[in-house]
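Student:
Attend to each token:
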Amino acid sequence: MLLKTLSDKDVKKLSEIMSDKMTEHKLFKFLCPEKEERKEFITAYFRYNIPRWLDRGDYLLIDKDFDVLLVLASPHRSSHKFSGKGAKRLKKFASSPAIFFYRGNLAYITHLIAPRNRRLKVMTAFADKHHDDVLFDLVDEAIALSDKRNFNLMYDTLTRRLINKMEEKDFVIVYQKMFASTGFVQTIMMLNK
């Protein structure tokens, strides 16, 4: 289901639900290595970003049980500082600058490999391994949305778990490398259409 708008109360609720489910998500392990802080970090991350994604015209797809969230965001619209509502809550984490490092790297890579003169959305999947069927239903919805709204779709991940399934959906690997001297392998895939 495509989210069009959310009240502050719903953003808070969704952020808390997702933080309970995403503590072992690779992106959050990278962004917040301190396990004891991760749940609070994830809540702050979503409370800060969900309203911004919606305001910028990015797309958020979620299943009815709030088990999987797909974010289709422009990689070139992120800022390099926290500002506005929710910024203070996120800035308090020592690891929060890693968000800008990761986004900057993603923006640079997509600038190099994405087709010119085409709108682009990078899909990030917030899901655990127990909800792959739901995830791929939403991926199908994202692919249909990219056709309908005429934008190129890329998939960004720090895990290899979903790569084969994404290839079955006609995504091809366009970039894969160990990320910033860590144990995380960043893979970027593009929908081949």
Observations:
- Strands lie at 2-3, 59-62, 69-73, 120-126, 152-157, 171-178, 185-191.
- The first strand starts at residue 2 and ends at 3.
- The chain has a mean pLDDT of 87.
- The radius of gyration is 16 Å.
